[in-house]
Structure formats: structure tokens, C-alpha cells
């Protein structure tokens, strides 16, 4: 049956177009129920009589029809294995897809779980349930009517099917259909049309066997709250926001909350280098970190300066009224920053509306309540940038000392905190597996097991290289190829060789795992790798981008095993000048897989004269020439305080911690990986001018270097920042004979001034913008790590297509789709870095639990009330508070009057008597762990040397040399057994 829909549309030129759309209706679409005697069922029944839910308001068997708002708001309830025999209408499915892609994906996962009995009914193409749009009817009203029509049809249809004598003689109560909707208007209309209807909350509360499911209900408002006084200004309507943005009265950007000060944030706006400063609770106006907001810029006379005060919200409970202490705290902060010198002030504004919320699920803990038997609680997120969340739960006692997940539902004007609901528990607080799960969830790292569909695209084992494979590839199995990696590396994706040529030149090859051979474009394995974007490395744990069969087996270039590779081979002279290059897919057989230490030992041992040793010596010599050439061009040698943990293989707890050692072989591998990446970038950019995947590192704005320039100047050094070459030469000169770590600290500080390097598509920028500032390279990409980076897989496909080693495909050459992929890769890469740092912090805390260590360190920054101290041995930074604190934040029991520090703003020093602290001064500190805040444990730094009476802590007589001693390693169970 065919229906026609006609409507008119006005074109840009003012012409009126008449549009006619055909819509086909059918009479053979089944209802999916095993109770039906009339519908033709072409598959297994999905609505069955096996699952009857006990409800106190619907005391008979029933199926459920969901409204769109129920799916959008109550997806956490739907994901619980409680509700069965649920009818999902295509009207609802399409609306959900349009409004939230993430919830649409979650709903589809439920639908495809056959045990849940969720049935998709194509009501939009059924002749009895299709609802044509009436004149002057909104799209939303039409969809509501279509949902009611389908619910009514289902109920009538089942009633007819169950009217037979056979069914009546079975003694079974007739099954009805219940519509769940949270739209009061839709409920009223449904009741008027004799449809069984209920709100999601009323229905869930009526389920007799699942009382705790109520905790998962979305909480838009709490009872007895509607009469509370407003605590925030109203948000502008979407119409007002769009009008304000159109006429430039308002600015739009992403809101970033401060970690150090809960009353401060920043909105990144394109036309403002440092963004718009937001200060004070009312100006923040219910924005949550990540939200896209509209900002009203304040008059310049009201601009303020960023606060240097660290403000953490004190313990709060389920009351909404700010205490007098919190109000005074806010007033004091605002008064201080608004009286700052004009030169320090920055554009300041207030948030007047939310363009798009970016709420997600948050990990954290419940704050213990002072009221017994209450269901209302405060949830404290692990991320300090997220406000506390009010939830209702009936299982607070069970959830104490548990890490839990909560999601935000709303933030009314009359509530100090947003409202949310409990989603699930992760496990005991402090448990290593639980804390790792928190790190992965908080940094949005995809870490679920690979699905059966993804795994189905892996090669079938046992896998072997065929004669056809050899014929298509260059055979390099006879070359003395070897790999050099960190200890314990199983995902070996690069190997090297170097051999002398008859003409006196050298042949150098970089051989990269050919992952793109196994991952074909567009299949489930490829889509999963693209979504994950990168492998994530935590301490003692790795979250693979691709399944282990590829990452640690078929693609890993292990020694003595034939593997597929993508080879980049150069002919170079003895001064490392590239004379020619070629790319080809190859078969290699690595002669040896070595660690950096083993490779270094082989190079240094003059008695070693084998082919691998000769190859490594050539490579090492050439690498030094390449590195010097890069440095002369202005490439930067930066530094970061990196550490390595030795982890117990059974308990996964850290046994020992040490700074990472860098050897010549580290630099050797790095230089040839850089050369390969640059060579490949030049080639693919020439072949694909519009869609090559490249990587750039923007030059930082001059203001980024202010902390570096000032810190160096205080130490008597001038740092030039006009060009990378000037900066590199300046850093080389920052050397102090009495402080061997000084140059490293200057480079650590320089690293923090840098911009983030990002992936981009060649056609989206001008060539001069391709520049990689840190490497001083005109063009750069990532080619050398396809096992752990999806960007490299994209580059492999482009390179293969350019040399005829593989065919191209439409999406490979689509700029827009590749730009979207690059945006995801940039995000995933950033989150992976943050997750790795969080894992190091977690293991550092575990290592120091129950210990006190005295260590040598250096003052990195001098603050108004504290010293930022760097401990090179552990790669740690911490805060040494210099003034007494009424809250005891520094852990020392004393009054402010006993010890007085004076801060000099001109030279950024702190003086106490005859002791003066400058940036980069050596100090000795005692490290211990403060576990008073179970959610946010922190290392406490106490001064040992220089000694200040009444402030420094005494050195224990038996530990007078503890500052330089290695901490004792915790023995593993295996060591104890050996003893």
C-alpha cells in the first residue's frame, strides 16, 4: 500500500518547491509475540510468555512499549537484566538515533541480546500503526501520537489473539500492553484513549522483586525541592543564545574547570589566546567541565586575574544552602583577584547559557552522611574538576568504601549541586583492579573485551605464509635485521638493519610490522581499532588497540620468526646523507630481539665482530650524525621526569621505582624512526595532496614561555624564544657546575610550555602550517608503530596505495572522514597520556604507603605560600607548604607565628631568617603518604635540609644518609619461597 506525503520548501532564492515523498505500508509485519495466532513470524519469537514481571500496579502479564524520553533518560535502568518483553518502535529508535548516538548504540546492544526479549516493531510501515502528520501538528506531537497508536494496536491485537477457546482453557491470564512515558501530556492522552500507561519512575518503584532498581532512576528533581530559593541565575533560552551568538553579543566555547580552585574556570574561545576567565559560583552558573557554553564578556573595568589560591570544597552534605564560611571564602578570593594589577588581568566573563552538555558517567565515592537512615547522599567524583552530585540510594551502607559510578541527570537553579543517579559499583576502594578501572573510565579509554564480531576477522590459526605471499613481497629474510626495545616488550613493531654496499655506501632499513595486511578497511576489526585509536600503557598493564593475536604474535617482529613488514630502505653515504630511498612490502626474519641495554653492550664490546654488532655500530654512528644535524636545524631536546616501576608479578603492586635510564641505543632507534616518519610524510604528501595523514607541532605563543624565561632569568640565564634554534641554543647554555640536574630541570620546564602535537589532513592547512616545532621538521607523520597507533595504519594504507602494493578505497581519499578520524586520534592520544600519568601517580602512592623516605630534590617553583619540589629519583613533583595552615594541609602542628616566611615578588624567593629559597635550589625532603582523604591520597613533603628551627623535621640518626639511599624493595612471594 502506498501513501504520498506532500510539503513545500522555500529555497535560498525565494522560490517555492513542492516535494512529494512516497511511503509504503505493509500488512505482513509480525508482532513478534508467541501468543499471536495471526501474524506470520519469520524468525524466533522475541516476545515470549516465559518472563512475567511482578508489578504492584499492573498485576497481570504485560509487554512494555517505551516512549523516546524513557529510553533517553532511563537507559541505565533498561540495561539491567530486569525488564523483558519490551517493544521498541521504529519511531522511538529513529528519535533516539537523532538525539543521542551513544544511547542509540547502548539501546542496540540491548536489542541484539536475545535473552532480553526486546523486539523492534516497524510501526512506521505497518498499515494499522502508521500515523500521518496532521495539519498544524508538530513533529513531536505526531511521534507521540504514533507511539500511542502502536501501543493501542498491540493491546487490541493481543486481546483478539487470546480470545480463542484454546487460550482461555489454558487458565493463563491475558497479556496486556503498558506504555511507559515520562511526558505528562502524553500520559494524559493515553489514559483518555484507554491505554494502560505509567511513568518510568512509578513503574520501576512498583517492581516487587527489584527494589534497588529505583537507585538507577534518572533524578531530574528531588521531592520537596520545587519551593527552594534559586541559587543561580537563569540560563538564557536556546533562541536567545543563538541570537546572542549571531550578533556577537555572546561568545561560545568549551568550559574547562580548574583542578586547584572549584570557584574558577576558563572558556576556550577561538578569538582569545588564553580564553575567557570565569570566577565565582554565580558566574560559573552550573557549567560542568567539558560543556559547550555561551559567555557574556564583562566590561574591561571588571576583568580579573587568575587566582593563585588553592581552594578545595570542604566536606558538604545533602543540604543546598552555602555555609557562611563558604560564602566568605568566595568573597575573599574574588576581592583578591579583582584588585590585582592591571597588567595581570585577563578577559573575564560569566556563563549565561549551556549550548550543549557534555555530561558522562563519573567515578567516585559516597560521602558519609551525618543523618541516619537517609536516602539522600552526596557523591564526590574522583576528578576534582567535577562538582559533587546529589543522588538518592537505598544501599549507602553497602556502597561505603566502594568506588561507584554516577551520572548527572539535571542541575536546577535551586540546587547547589547537580542531581544524578547511581549506575553501578566498581569494587573496593584502594583495590588495584578497581583503581585501574577508575583510571580507564575517567580517561574514557575503551577497554572492554574484543567482541566476537571483531575477533571473527582475525586470521585462522595456525597461520602460515603462503607461496603466493612470498611472490607478492620482497624477500629480506637473509638480512641481519634486529629489533631494540624496552625490557619485556611483546608488541615489537619496528626492526632495523644496516649493511655495507659494494660502492662504499651503506644500506639502512627500517622494517615496520605490516598490520594493515591483517586489518582490512571497513570491517569490525578496523572500526574497533579506529575507535580505540591507540594502545594505552598503565603500570604493569596494557590496553591493546588490536587483539593480542596480532599485537603480541602475528604482527610482533620477534626474533627468529618470519613476519610481514613494510620496509623503508635508504642508501646513505658515510655522513648519513640520503642518496636514494625505496618502500616495499616484505618478508623478514629478525635475527635477534634485544633490549636497549643488550644492544648497548653489544656495541661497546670490541670483541663482538658479528654481523649484528657491525650493523648496530654503523647505525649508532649514523644516528649521532643525524641527531647533530637535527639539533643544528633547531630541533629541541626536551625532558620529562619519567620513572619505571618494578611490579610484583602476583600482587601487581610496585616493588621498586627508579628513573628511566637513557642510553645511546635509545637515541639510535629514535633517530631512524624519525627519519622513516619524515621520509614517508614527504612521499604521501606528494602523492595525496588533499588527504595525507600528517602530524604537526604548532609553535607555542610567546606568553607560554613566560614561566621558563622568568625562572631562567632568576638564575642568571637569558632564554631566547623567537625561533626553535634560538631556544635550543639557549637551553644548551643553561648549565651550572654546582648543580648537574639544573639543565634537565630547565628542559622539563620547557616541555610544559609546549603545545600539543596533533594529527591533521594535508588538504586542511597551508604547507607552512605543516611544521613540527619540536623536531624542526617541515613535514612529519607517524609510520613506525602500527601495532599501537591507528594513525600509522592509515599512513600504511596511503603508502601502499601510492606504490601499488595495495588498492585504494573511497574513504581513504575522503578528506572529511579522515579529518573526523584525526580528531578522534588526537583525543585518544591525549587521554592515553593522562591515563598513563594517573597510573604512575597511583603506583607511586602505593609504593609510599606505610613508608617515610628522605630524598634529595630541587625547588622547581617558588610560590607565595609554598615550594614546588621535584624529586629526580622518583620523577615526582610535590608541594612543600611554607606557612602554617589552620586546616593542617601541610601536616605540621604549629602556629603561624612560630615561623615566618617572606615572599619576594621581584625575584620570586622565600626567606626565613638566613635561609633563602630560589628556583632550582637543592633541598632534602621527607616523603610520606597522607591517606586521610581516601579518595585523593597525596604525598606530603616535609623539609629536612636546609634546617629551619621550628619548621624542618629532624633526621633520624640511623637514616642520616637516607637522602641518597635506595629504598628497600619489597620482596615478592617467590623471593620468600627461595629463602
TrEMBL record:
Residues 956-979 are annotated as: Disordered. GO terms for cellular component: cytoplasmic exosome (RNase complex); nuclear exosome (RNase complex); nucleolus; nucleoplasm. Residues 956-969 have a biased composition (Low complexity). It is found in: Cytoplasm; Nucleus, Nucleolus; Nucleus, Nucleoplasm. One of its GO terms (biological process) is rRNA processing. Its cofactor is Mn(2+); Mg(2+). SUPFAM superfamilies: Nucleic acid-binding proteins (SSF50249), PIN domain-like (SSF88723). One of its GO terms (molecular function) is 3'-5'-RNA exonuclease activity. Keywords: Acetylation, Cytoplasm, Endonuclease, Exonuclease, Exosome, Hydrolase, Magnesium, Manganese, Nuclease, Nucleus, Phosphoprotein, RNA-binding, rRNA processing. Residues 473-805 form the RNB domain. Residues 970-979 have a biased composition (Basic residues). Pfam families: OB_Dis3 (PF17849), PIN_4 (PF13638), RNB (PF00773), Rrp44_CSD1 (PF17216), Rrp44_S1 (PF17215). Its main location: cytoplasm. Component of the RNA exosome complex; within the complex interacts with EXOSC4, EXOSC7 and EXOSC9 of the exosome core complex (Exo-9). The catalytically inactive RNA exosome core complex (Exo-9) associates with the catalytic subunit EXOSC10/RRP6. Exo-9 may associate with DIS3 to form the nucleolar exosome complex, or DIS3L to form the cytoplasmic exosome complex. Exo-9 is formed by a hexameric base ring consisting of the heterodimers EXOSC4-EXOSC9, EXOSC5-EXOSC8 and EXOSC6-EXOSC7, and a cap ring consisting of EXOSC1, EXOSC2 and EXOSC3; DIS3 associates with the base ring of Exo-9. This is Exosome complex exonuclease RRP44. The lineage of its organism: Eukaryota, Metazoa, Ecdysozoa, Arthropoda, Hexapoda.
Amino acid at each position: 500500500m502506498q501513501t504520498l506525503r506532500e510539503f513545500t520548501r522555500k529555497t535560498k532564492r525565494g522560490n517555492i518547491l513542492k516535494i512529494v515523498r512516497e511511503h509504503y505500508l505493509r500488512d505482513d509485519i509480525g508482532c513478534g509475540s508467541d501468543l499471536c495466532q495471526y501474524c506470520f513470524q519469520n524468525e524466533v519469537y522475541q516476545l515470549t510468555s516465559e518472563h512475567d514481571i511482578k508489578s504492584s500496579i499492573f498485576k497481570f502479564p504485560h509487554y512494555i512499549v517505551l516512549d523516546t524520553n524513557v529510553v533517553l533518560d532511563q537507559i541505565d535502568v533498561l540495561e539491567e537484566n530486569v525488564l523483558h518483553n519490551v517493544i521498541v518502535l521504529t519511531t522511538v529508535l529513529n528519535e533516539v538515533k537523532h538525539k543521542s548516538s551513544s544511547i542509540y548504540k547502548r539501546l542496540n546492544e540491548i536489542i541484539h541480546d536475545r535473552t532480553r526479549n526486546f523486539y523492534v516493531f516497524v510501526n512506521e510501515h505497518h498499515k494499522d500503526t502508521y500515523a500521518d502528520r496532521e495539519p498544524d501538528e508538530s513533529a513531536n506531537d505526531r511521534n507521540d501520537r504514533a507511539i500511542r497508536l502502536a501501543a493501542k494496536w498491540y493491546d487490541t491485537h493481543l486481546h483478539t489473539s487470546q480470545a480463542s477457546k484454546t487460550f482461555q482453557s489454558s487458565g493463563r491470564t491475558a497479556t496486556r500492553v503498558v506504555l511507559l512515558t515520562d511526558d505528562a501530556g502524553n500520559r494524559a492522552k493515553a489514559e483518555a484513549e484507554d491505554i494502560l500507561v505509567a511513568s518510568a519512575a512509578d513503574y520501576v518503584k512498583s517492581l516487587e522483586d527489584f527494589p534497588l532498581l529505583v537507585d538507577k532512576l534518572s533524578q531530574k528533581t528531588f521531592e520537596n525541592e520545587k519551593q527552594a530559593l534559586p541559587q543561580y541565575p537563569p540560563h538564557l533560552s536556546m533562541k536567545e543564545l543563538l541570537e546572542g551568538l549571531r550578533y556577537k553579543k555572546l561568545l561560545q566555547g568549551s568550559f574547562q574547570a580548574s583542578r586547584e580552585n572549584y570557584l574558577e574556570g576558563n572558556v576556550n574561545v577561538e578569538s582569545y589566546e588564553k580564553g575567557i576567565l570565569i570566577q565565582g559560583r554565580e558566574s560559573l552558573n552550573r557549567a560542568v567541565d567539558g560543556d559547550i557554553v555561551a559567555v557574556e564578556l564583562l566590561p574591561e573595568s571588571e576583568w580579573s586575574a587568575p587566582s593563585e589560591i588553592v581552594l578545595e570544597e570542604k566536606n558538604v552534605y545533602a543540604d543546598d544552602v552555602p555555609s557562611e564560611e563558604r560564602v566568605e571564602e568566595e568573597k575573599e578570593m574574588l576581592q583578591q583577584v579583582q584588585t590585582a594589577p592591571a597588567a595581570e588581568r585577563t578577559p573575564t566573563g560569566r556563563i549565561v547559557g549551556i549550548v550543549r552538555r557534555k555530561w558522562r558517567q563519573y567515578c567516585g565515592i559516597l560521602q558519609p552522611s551525618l543523618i541516619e537512615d537517609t536516602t539522600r547522599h552526596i557523591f564526590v567524583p574522583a576528578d576534582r574538576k567535577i562538582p559533587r552530585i546529589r543522588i538518592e540510594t537505598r544501599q549507602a551502607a553497602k556502597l561505603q568504601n566502594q568506588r561507584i559510578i554516577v551520572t548527572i541527570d539535571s542541575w536546577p537553579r535551586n540546587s547547589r549541586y547537580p542531581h544524578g543517579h547511581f549506575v553501578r559499583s566498581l569494587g573496593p576502594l584502594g583495590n588495584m583492579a578497581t583503581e585501574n578501572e577508575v583510571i580507564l573510565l575517567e580517561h574514557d579509554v575503551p577497554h572492554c573485551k574484543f567482541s566476537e564480531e571483531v575477533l571473527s576477522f582475525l586470521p585462522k590459526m595456525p597461520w602460515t605464509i603462503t607461496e603466493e605471499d612470498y611472490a607478492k613481497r620482497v624477500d629480506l629474510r637473509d638480512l641481519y635485521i634486529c629489533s631494540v626495545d624496552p625490557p619485556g616488550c611483546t608488541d615489537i613493531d619496528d626492526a632495523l638493519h644496516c649493511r655495507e654496499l659494494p660502492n662504499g655506501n651503506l644500506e639502512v632499513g627500517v622494517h615496520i610490522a605490516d598490520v594493515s595486511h591483517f586489518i582490512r578497511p571497513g570491517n569490525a576489526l578496523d572500526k574497533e581499532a579506529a575507535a580505540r585509536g591507540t594502545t594505552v600503557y598503565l603500570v604493569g598493564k596494557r590496553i591493546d588497540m588490536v587483539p593480542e593475536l596480532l599485537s603480541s604474535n602475528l604482527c610482533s617482529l620477534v626474533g627468529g620468526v618470519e613476519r610481514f613488514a613494510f620496509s623503508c630502505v635508504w642508501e646513505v653515504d658515510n655522513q648519513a646523507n640520503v642518496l636514494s630511498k625505496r618502500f616495499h612490502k616484505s618478508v623478514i626474519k629478525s635475527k635477534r630481539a634485544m633490549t636497549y641495554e643488550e644492544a648497548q653492550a653489544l656495541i661497546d664490546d670490541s670483541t663482538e665482530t658479528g654481523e649484528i654488532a657491525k650493523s648496530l655500530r654503523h647505525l649508532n654512528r649514523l644516528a649521532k650524525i643525524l641527531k647533530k644535524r637535527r639539533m643544528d636545524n633547531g630541533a629541541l631536546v626536551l625532558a620529562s621526569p619519567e620513572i619505571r616501576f618494578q611490579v610484583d608479578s602476583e600482587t601487581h603492586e610496585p616493588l621498586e621505582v627508579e628513573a628511566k635510564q637513557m642510553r645511546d641505543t635509545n637515541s639510535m632507534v629514535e633517530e631512524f624512526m624519525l627519519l622513516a616518519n619524515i621520509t614517508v610524510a614527504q612521499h604521501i604528501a606528494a602523492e595525496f595532496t588533499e588527504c595525507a595523514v600528517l602530524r604537526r607541532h604548532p609553535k607555542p605563543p610567546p606568553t607560554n614561555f613566560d614561566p621558563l624565561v622568568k625562572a631562567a632569568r632568576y638564575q642568571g640565564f637569558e632564554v631566547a624564544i623567537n625561533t626553535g634554534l634560538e631556544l635550543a641554543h639557549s637551553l644548551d647554555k643553561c648549565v651550572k657546575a654546582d648543580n648537574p640536574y639544573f639543565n634537565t630541570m630547565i628542559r622539563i620546564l620547557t616541555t610544559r610550555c609546549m603545545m600539543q602535537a596533533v594529527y591533521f589532513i594535508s588538504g586542511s592547512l597551508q604547507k607552512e602550517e605543516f611544521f613540527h616545532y619540536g623536531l624542526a621538521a617541515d613535514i612529519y607523520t607517524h609510520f613506525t608503530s602500527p601495532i599501537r597507533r591507528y594513525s600509522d595504519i592509515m599512513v600504511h594504507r596511503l603508502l601502499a596505495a601510492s606504490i601499488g602494493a595495495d588498492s585504494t578505497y573511497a574513504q581513504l581519499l575522503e578528506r572529511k572522514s579522515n579529518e573526523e578520524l584525526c580528531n578522534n586520534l588526537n583525543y585518544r592520544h591525549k587521554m592515553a597520556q593522562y591515563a598513563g600519568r594517573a597510573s604512575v601517580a597511583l603506583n607511586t602512592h602505593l609504593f609510599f604507603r606505610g613508608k617515610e623516605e628522605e630524598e634529595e630534590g630541587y625547588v622547581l617553583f617558588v610560590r607565595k605560600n609554598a615550594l614546588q619540589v621535584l624529586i629526580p629519583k622518583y620523577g615526582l613533583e610535590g608541594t612543600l607548604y611554607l606557612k602554617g595552615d589552620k586546616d593542617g594541609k601541610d601536616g605540621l602542628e604549629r602556629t603561624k607565628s612560630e615561623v615566618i616566611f617572606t615572599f619576594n615578588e621581584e625575584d620570586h624567593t622565600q626567606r626565613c631568617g638566613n635561609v633563602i629559597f630560589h628556583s632550582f635550589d637543592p633541598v632534602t625532603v621527607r616523603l610520606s603518604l597522607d591517606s586521610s582523604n581516601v579518595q585523593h591520597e597525596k604525598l606530603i613533603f616535609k623539609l629536612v635540609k636546609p634546617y629551619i628551627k621550628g619548621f624542618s623535621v629532624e633526621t633520624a640518626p640511623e637514616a642520616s644518609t637516607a637522602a641518597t639511599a635506595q629504598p628497600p624493595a619489597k620482596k615478592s612471594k617467590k623471593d620468600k619461597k627461595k629463602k
